[in-house]
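Okay, any thoughts on this one?
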Amino acid sequence: MSSAADQPHHSGALPPGQHWRDEPEIMHYGPVPPLRPDRWTFVLGGATADGLEHTFEWADLAALPRQDLVADMHCATRWSAAGLHWAGPRALDVIALAPPAPEVASVLVFAEYGYAANVPLADLRRPTTLLATTLDGVPLTPERGAPMRLVIPHLYTWKGPKWVRGWNYLGAEDTDLGFWEQRGYHRRGHAWQEQRYDYQGEHP
């Protein structure tokens, strides 16, 4: 029998405590940000390998190879949506633009309006982790996270911010927490291990 970590991303099976809904619910904290392509940048900072902060424009990320991914989506509020078709550059290829220092084990992904989420570097480096720009073959709508959102299929959806704008690599001394992690949610949030809340432990 496969372990929770080995569960496929589109399996027709539900993680524990979830129920199916026909399409993903539109959920976010705060207003929907206006689209401003001329001002859009993506920043990789914190404990980078060279100690510098790197800023990229939309064209830099658009030039990366695009990956297609069919995956289920799992929200910590207990709904799941099956077989969503995402496309965009892999987070792995974005990491290669500005790699982390050797000691880095996690990142703080940040988005518009100060939203952030803690994500283990190993999960960000998975080949199925995307910076999605399209859903079901069409560009993301503003409500779905346009122009770009992070998709990590095996983690709960709060780990994949809409309107993503970059991440900071966290060193061993960094204790920064994301929006929901500050409010008692799990540091990793693995859907198949039902890691909803911090008191459950088993942090990366």
